[in-house]
Amino acid sequence: MSLKLFNTLTREKEEFEPIEEGRVKFYSCGQTIYDDLHIGNARHVQNITDVGHLTDDGDQGEDKVEKRAEDLGMEPMELVEDQIERYFEDTKAINVERQDIVPRATGHINEMINYVQKIIDNGYAYEAEGNIYFDVEKFAEDYPYGEMAKKDIEQLKQEAESRVEPDEKKKNQYDFALWLNAEGTGHLMKWNAEFDNDRERIESTGYPGWHLECSVMGQKYLGEEFDIHAGGKDHIFPHHPNERAQSFAATGKGQARYWLHNEFIQIEGEKMSKSEGNFYTVRGLLNGGYSGDAIRLYLVSSHYRSETDFSKEGLEKAEKELRKARRARNWAEKVSGDALEDRAEEVEDQFKKYMDDDLDTANAKQLLMEFVSDITSTLESGEGVSIKTRNILEELFEIIGINLVADGTVEEMKLAELLAESREKFREKENYEEADRIRDELEKLGFEVEDTDDEPRLYRSK
Ligand SMILES: [Zn+2]
User: Fold this and answer.
1) How many CA atoms lie within 13 A of 302 on its CB side?
2) Burial environment of residue 102 by CB neighbours within 10 A (0 to 12, 13 to 18, 19 or more)
3) Residue 88: burial class (beta carbons within 10 Å; 0-12, 13-18, 19+)
4) 45 band by pLDDT with thresholds 50, 70 and 90
């Protein structure tokens, strides 16, 4: 069996075939970097939007970065620098691998201006008062426009007319901005641009439309056509169709072949929203004493296309599961044996099948927890499991982003052993009060101690 992915373009699970064998070119719409990483964005990452994302989708409202910077009394770029650093700290804490390239919108303004010029040259854009708009009607004569959203053009037209406050400069309300003139708007982040249409030269000091950066940076770094483009479900319209339309209009190629969209995270049954106050950030949870690994384990417990209901109880359960898995792995290391090898192979096969099925981490993780239980009861019965079995357990957890061999330093381990030994001495003297105190200290250090008939066993619990 090979990997199948659910492609939003066709609404079907399709066999994944990369353009170039052995290489996957993947672009993911990252976050607009004006605040800490919220858990809803914690499953995928890529570009960094540091300009042009307005508070309103209809090309109106304020720039999100500028607005937040103003609230905090900072320069926009000061906020961006600060947030980028925090962003990488947060994603690292939940074991998101660092992307190969993390392009920033503000670093690609020249390319964006050139790209807009190409769209104008190809006849799919027009100018009005220094703004450049994408001409949806013209585009839809030559290319599909609403297919990703499964909406026909008439429907989109009506929706746009009812959704946004009419912008008199647009030919049609579903047209969207490629470039916005900043004159008289108070925008801080703006650049001088020049465009040519058939008749004249247009000078406009302004900033790019939000959708533009992804078309430009995706094709710049991955080629005109690449494999996967991912993002949140909210991008099914308008962000991704607009991005794709711009790419067709400029290059004749529609960017990615597979479009993946993840569902949102709900908080105790409701949509996560800052204004409602039910909003969790990764940083907030880490500061609250939850481990990055547990947050990760919790997030992969549901499929990326299904709604995750996030709660503190759920996260605590994930902490327990993580502890159980680490305990089994560390215990297995201490007891030699050859049990469960067939079971391990069976688990490995089944795990691959789940992951091949549109990255079904929910079932894959469930399977791993069952495997952990098998290992634990085997060890409890006094039998040891083989090294191969232990390796398979570690490797499969690694694939879902969980390191079972929690990394602690050798010094930490030595200190813990020393503490455990002295605790043993207090126990022998029946000074249980002191023994319990040391147990608590060990727990704070991230170790769990289990008393057995012979010597006590130490486990990493964090
Ligand atoms: Zn994007």
Assistant:
1) 19
2) middle
3) middle
4) very low
Alpha-carbon gap, residue 225 to 415, rounded angstroms: 54
Q: What is the mean pLDDT of the chain?
A: 87
Q: Cα dihedral sign for 225, 226, 228, 229? A: negative
pLDDT tens for 336-367 read 999 999 999 999 999 999 999 999 999 999 99
Higher-pLDDT residue of 399 and 59 is 399
Cα–ligand 1 centroid distance for 213 (angstroms) = 7
How close is the Cα of 153 to the center of ligand 1, in Å? 22
Tens of pLDDT along 222-257? Answer: 899 999 999 889 899 999 999 999 999 999 999 999
Please tell me the distance between residue 199's alpha carbon and the centre of ligand 1 in angstroms: 32
Torsion of CA 7, 12, 17, 19, to 10 degrees: -40
CATH of 292-399, picked from 1.10.730.10, 3.60.20.10, 3.50.50.60, 2.60.40.3080, is 1.10.730.10
Q: What is the third-level CATH fold of 19-262?
A: Rossmann fold (3.40.50)
Domain ranges of the chain: 19-262, 292-399, 410-460
- Identify the band that residue 17 occupies on the pLDDT scale cut at 50, 70 and 90: very high
pLDDT at 74 exceeding the cut of 90: no
* 107 Cα–ligand 1 center, Å: 15
Distance 285 CA to ligand 1 centre (A): 27
Query: Distances in Å between the alpha carbon of 48 and those of 65, 87, 261, 431?
Result: 11, 10, 18, 57
Sign of CA dihedral 79, 85, 88, 94: negative
Q: Give the whole-angstrom CA distance, residue 157 versus residue 170.
A: 12
Check residue 35 and give its pLDDT. Answer: 64
Helices (H) and strands (E) in the chain, counts: 15, 17
**Pairing state of beta strands 131-134 and 125-128?**
antiparallel
Q: How far is CA 426 from the centre of its chain?
A: 48
Q: How close is the Cα of 266 to the center of ligand 1, in Å?
A: 22
Least confident of 72-81, 304-313, 374-383: 72-81
Centre of ligand 1 from the C-alpha of residue 258, in Å = 14
State the distance from the centre of ligand 1 to the C-alpha of 70, rounded, in angstroms: 24
Contact 84, 48 (CB under 8 A): yes
Over residues 93-133, the pLDDT tens digits come to 888 887 788 888 889 999 999 999 999 999 999 999 999 99
Contact 54, 64 (CB under 8 A): yes
Distance of CA 51 from the midpoint of ligand 1 (Å): 12
